[in-house]
Amino acid sequence: MTPKTDVREQGIEVFRELLPGVLPDGPLDVRDGSFGDEILEIAMDNVFGSLWTRDGLSRRDRSLVTLGILIALRATDELKIHFQIARNNGLTEDEIAEVVYHSTGYAGFPAGNTACRLAREVFDVS
C-alpha cells in the first residue's frame, strides 16, 4: 500500500477492499448530527487506518486474530462483519470453523457456540 498522510483515507480504502460494496464510492461523510455519528470515523482512523494498514501480519492473519478476539468478547455485530472479511481475506469456512472450535477452549463454550450460530447465519448454512 502506498504511504498516505491521511489515516482516515487509508482506513476507508482498506475497509472498501475488505468489504467491497458496503461503503459508497467517493468521499465518505457519515456525520448526520445524530447520537454517536462519529463512531464510523473512529473505526476508520483507529482500526482500519492505523491497524489494518500495518506491516507485520497479512490480512489473512489479522482476520484470524480478530475473529478470536471478537469471539472471546462475544461481539456479535462485529463478528458478522469479520466473518465476511475473513472469507474475503482467503480463509475457508473450514478454517473459520477451526477458529470457532479453538476459541471454545479459551473463551468458553457459550462464546464459541454463539460464534458458530452467527457464522451459520453469515454463510447461510444449516
Automatic annotation (TrEMBL):
This is Uncharacterized protein, gamma-carboxymuconolactone decarboxylase subunit like protein. Transmembrane segments: none annotated. Coiled coil: none annotated. It comes from Mycolicibacterium rhodesiae (strain NBB3) (Mycobacterium rhodesiae). PANTHER family: 4-CARBOXYMUCONOLACTONE DECARBOXYLASE FAMILY PROTEIN, BLL4600 PROTEIN. Residues 40-121 form the Carboxymuconolactone decarboxylase-like domain. GO terms for molecular function: peroxiredoxin activity. InterPro entries: 4CMD/NDH-1_regulator, AhpD-like, CMD-like. It holds the Pfam family CMD.
